[in-house]
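hey so i finally got around to running both of the ones u sent me last week. sorry it took forever, my laptop kept dying halfway thru and i had to restart like 3 times lol. anyway pasting them below in the order u listed, first the sequence line then the structure token line for each. didnt double check formatting much so if smth looks off just lmk and ill redo it

first one:
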Amino acid sequence: MPISLLMATRAQARNLPSDATPAPRHRPESTGSPSAMREHCHIATLDACGDGYAVLRAVRTGETIIDWTVIDANGLVQDRWQGVVGDVVGVPLSLLDAAADNSALWGLYGAALHTGERQETDIELILPAGKGGWRRVTVVPVDDDTVTVLTRDITRERHFELALEQSRRTLRGLSPAPARARHASDPRISEPRLLGRSAALLFFGAGSVTVANTLLSALPGVNVAALRMTGFVSILTALFVPLLPWSRHLRFVASGVVLVAIGYLVLSDQFDHFSRSESAVAVYPIFFIMVVAWSGLIQVRGAPTVAACLSGLALGGILTEGGHGSIGLQCVIVTMPAAAVLGEVMAWSSRRVSNLVGLELDRSLHDPLTALANRQLFIDRAEQALARVRRGEHSLAVLFVDLDRFKQVNDSMGHAAGDQLLIEAAARLRELVRQSDDVARFGGDEFAILCEDLEHQDGAAVIASRVLSSLGVPFSLGKRHVSIGASIGIAFSGDGGKTAEVILQDADAAMYRAKDAGRARFEFFDDNMQREIATRMELETSLRQAVSRKELRVFYQPIVAADSGAIVGFEALVRWDRPGFGLVAPGSFIAVAEETGMIIDIGSWVLNEACAQAALWMAQWPGRRLCVSVNISSRQVLRGDIVEIVRDALSNSGLDPTLLTLELTETTLIDDAISVQAILRNLRAQGVTIALDDFGTGYSSLTYLRTFPIDIIKIDGSFIRTIETEREAAAIVAAVISLAKSLDITVIAEGIETLRQLAAVVDLDCDLLQGYLLSHPKEAEALPALIDSSSARFGRDHGVKQT
């Protein structure tokens, strides 16, 4: 139903006379039209669904959203806020947030408008009168200024998840350790160790009681020395019991220890005659109760009852022989049934704990969504397979599979559709691999396949081809069919010389090579990739030390006015004077700096150097107003402190903020549009100029020019290089220049290398020029002469029109 009709119907319902019956909400007449019936059905459904529903409209100042107004809400939302504002419709969110702050959701509303796509998040909502809790908030854009918001109560689900996680931690003690470094918290080890330690405690306790009786009581008629020796032997036995093979022969060892414990006391009495002492009536029943109860840990139904019967016979015989016949019979009648019941209860509890431990172990080794093995289990199996390879049992291959375009599906259709896609992809992988192969999911859209018993690489290639064919078939997600694909990296091992982790890293590297080569294909890891990885690691290590060692240099390339040929500014370009390699261009190391995060330190250093140099120009040529342009990466912007970094650089250098231009790429704008928009506005408020670099090569959208505070656009050099040979490139450049002038945006043509290219952009009335034809980047020391002679030289040598 159109949102306008829904809101109109709700408004009509709210304007009923005061004596009208409020419920059901404006029920349609039997003679009403079908459309009216549908509208009222929608309203009734929204009021009865148990979810909060509201329609919000943005309040703007220019292009900036400063508030939101509630223009419609269902009964649940009305009830929540009735005690605060009465009728919530028409009330700005800023007023509601004053009573219960939920301003964190404003970014979600703005993101829905900006992207035109549904947004969803889980958040702990704050509501009046302490009625808040966890809600799943879904925001759907309606038009350029309106969104619908649906909130679903998931508080119970969150509490259940927390309780389940707490139960898991209680069972496991700690998170499971990796296979190569397991410890006592591993469920496969902790339970057998518990039994071994319990047995040791049993013997230690018995020995300690025996020795204590020899020290604290007279024990008439008893061989005290023999009794003391028995106690010491029991304690000594306790030291060796944990070393028994509990994990391999659990029930055999546990049963044996129970029988040995009973026999030990029976036989030891033949030597020290402890049963003749008065303490025997108290000591022996306690000991046998311990034995019977502990026998429950064998986890076999009936084992404690059998142990109780055997213990009862032994206990009665020992006490009768020691002269405590009547008391011994009473002990048997009273203690043994109780011991049997206690043992059976412990057996039941032990089995339950064992089952829970097994279940938790299974969960800790498998992906909860697809039920495939997880990374830990895959590494375990790969290590075992490599051991077989080292014994000469054929070869193996690891296929690292990454789904192409999964992120687009997840973002556009929601996480539920993404999960359904992953489940279907996992099912296809299980079906197409051999029974001896293992499939695992590592998280996100990454899968791995372990293929054993391969004669050569062709076998792995056949399996990879089947995977590509299977995942290339469209997936059915509800009423929509989605086509994705996969990129696969393959690491082959014929000798088992590498560890599972290394082979997995090799397959991962090959997968990225497949993505770079165009996706929907597979690549084998080879020696060239190995050398590339080694070279990259060496490059990364050296680059980390480049700033501290002062190996970075800033070069400056002139930006020339097309109408006069005068230099109006420079772009700061970083170079690396790497020892043994000379000057290294940024294309060789900037990508590594971006991926590792080193670009933040490098970018800050370049910014400070460029501002300091521009301040010197300002003092040396006060009438020229030479600007400096500095490239800013997306990581610098999204880190959140770029505004402060720029402010400090300007303050420390004394540079006029209007002489600083920050260049960003289109990718930076779309990474987090809402945050970036606010950051750019703050920078512009300082007086800094904002330039959009490489325009036309990324996700070019005219929306950026309207939404973001852009002062300059730089037409990418790829268009300039073909402007004289390709009609399409010339048309695009002309259109961009014309559009920019209508929006009062300055245009720079970069990458000019020939006189024809220069003439073409000048004829199209481009504002500023940049390229190797005009000047290569130079160090600051070489710039004064260039600045002094720029107007005459560029105008005379290159045909730039002069006024």
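and the second one:
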Amino acid sequence: MKKLIIIFFFFITSGLFAQSGIITWTKIINVTNDSTLMQKNNFSDVPNKPLAISNLGAVAMTDTLDKIMTPARTATLIVNALLGVADINLSNIDVDSARVKLLIENVDNTKDTDKPVSTATQTAIDSTLKKEQNLYDLPDKAAARTNLDVYTKAEVEALIDSLIYEGSLPRPLNVLATTGLEKITLTWANPINYDSIYIYRGLNSEPLELLYRIGLETSFNDTNVVVGKTYTYRLTGLIDGDVTQFSQSSSTYPYPDTTAYTHVKYVSKSGSDSNAGTKQAPYLTMAKAETAALDNTVIIVLPGEYTENSDGLNYFFTGNKITDWYGMGEVIVKATSASYNFRPYGTTTQKFHNFIIDANSTNSYAVAVTNETKNKTFEYCIVKNGKASLLYVSGATIDNIDINYCTLDSSSVSASAIYIGARTNGIISLAHNTIRNITTPSGSYLLYLYGSTNDTVNFISNTISDITIGGSRLIHLRGNTFLTIDSNTITHNGRILGSEGTITSGMVKFKHNTITNNTTDTDGITLTAASQALSPIEIDSNTFNMGYTLRTSSCIYISNHDSTKIRGNNFTTNSTILYSIVKIQSNGQSTKHTVVSNNTFINKSLANYSLLIGNETTNAYDNLCDSSIVQYNTFYNARYYNDTITALNITTHAVLNGFNDGLNFRGNKIYGARYGLVNKGSGVDSLALIDYNLFVNCYQPIRMKGKSYCKIYNNTIYNNNLDAGSGMAGEIRLTENTGSDGAKYTRLKNNIVFNATGTANYSYVIADTASVTGLDIDYNLYYSQVTSNWIIGATTYSTFGDYQTAGYDTTGVNSDPMFVTSTDYSLQAGSPAINGGIDVGLAIDILKNPIIGVPDIGAYEKQ
């Protein structure tokens, strides 16, 4: 890498052999191609370029030795050589002797300034200096400098300063962002050969982020841009592992491609409404552009603040004219109306792109959509400072209103921030928006949905944060609406979704959302109806992070809705007391056919339920939550995270099905709960089926209370007798429910019960006296590393032989099931559980593997 050395010489001369003094100033920078920093045309007509350069106040861009050697310096070196001296100071030399040696003893040494010249000669000299050497009279010195291939001294200093940064490499130069159609073209100069260039980009005032890495190119087309948004670019260079400082920044915004439009109009704060509305002669007001627009017109509004619209009633009324509006850069729209700041009207298609709609806390509604309005789209807009609401949609015949990629931002409103009222068959969509910094008063919400017949509201991929709600929930649902809440990120310390009133039609879908609630003691989702709700609810594939440690509420509460589906969600709570994750209950109406499947429950609470269906005690709503399906869920409870907690000191139920019939409980894994599954009630429950589940480290894994004819097949129960105390807990316990009959006619088949460690005399099976009737128990496998027993009725059986002699498990097995490991409960080859069961009509195991031939004992079928 070369060094550019810039040297300023000042000479003091007196005659040919006058004493020379050289004063130098040097600044060194790392560059390449330093002799060609700038190449320009020669100024060929000037015979004395050095004098011209000096008079132009310039510095020649040179670095070669011969170009910096002055005649005086060259003469001095010659004299030194001839005289054989090294001292350039000739004061000690014999002058006469030196003149002889130099053959100049006859030379007239009269000073040039003392030698006379003729008047004509002097005139010619003056003319030549003035016109060819002095150049003082040149009308365009900048052009002369260009032709002379030079910089001014100021330019040299600026160039050096722009290249130097703590001694590091020079940064990219002359960065320029140029507006294009739906793109921005970036150009720059590379002062050295970088290994690569890093392009950074920021939107508006947001921090820069790395956009792209390229090679030695000097241009880049950024097509991943939003029309009208202002982008700022800066570059760095990389060479030999070192990165330069950032280049100077350049900003611009892309224009829309208007080729698809028949007409194009422009609005500018420097325009006039008497103009033609062209780019060269734009209108002054948006109102003028709206009235002048023809069908299929695009209106481009240049940066500025536009305060118009005195009444707000017909603003942006376009009749049958299709128009699209684009704001370039920062376009602020305000209105003097007390009601509406921005109100599109009519049924033809309109799009409003990249506007800052600022109600200035004086207009009731920042954006209002009312009667007879259809086909309107707001995108990439900022909506803020509505006095009552930011967005108000209500009235007859409203349809196809889309709010996409916008930011809704306001410090305070006097009603619900977004109000979507009664419509008929209308579709309203809010997607990819940022909603933040909003405070509503008591009784108001972030989003209030008051649906009518067959209304559809889609709330998709929005980000919600910093919301303070005076009402009881973030999103309030009332009436009949097909509501989809999908793929949103919601951070809110309060209830997320709630409903009121009677919902007789429609559907609620709450899917793929991420919910974070860290402080407030309230439910996450509460959907209940005053009377029978015919609208099904789907809560699928969401992530709930409910971190409050003193919570007494639920993550999800559903009441009076049939056919609710809760599938594929991740529920996490760090609460240590009194927390229930999901409650399905009736308040007088049918809440049947609930499906809870493929969820993960993380519940560190020491009490209450991970999943509650029905009620703990009998009431007037018994059997209104019948026929629930709970399958392929994983429940992690308090003892999974802290096995020093004694089971007798916690009351957590992983699952409680209370006073409802027909529970299908399949393929679930339950860890560390006091009660794994409790199925309680009274009377015949012939449809209840508990099969192919895994229970690990629970105090009472399976308990049937007062429910008759239940079937318990192919479960694996492992090491559940920890700190059992009295030894009366029981791995499988069949008992009466208070005030009812026992769990009669229970069928226990193909289960593995394994006691690895813990208190001796722990019971594999307990069936109280009220539950012995019709007990069908066989083909089970029992194994214990401590003394265990069976309690049937009033009799305790301490050996497997005595137990079999009494007629129980006559085909059962008392042997090590040979699990793969202490955490992998599938079977090794040679396990006595393989093909040891009986066909009970089931087709797949806990992993959904097929049952092959004679069923194995336990939850895992050997493949």
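quick thing i noticed on the 2nd:
The CA atoms of residues 732 and 765 lie 5 Å apart.
anyway thats it, ttyl
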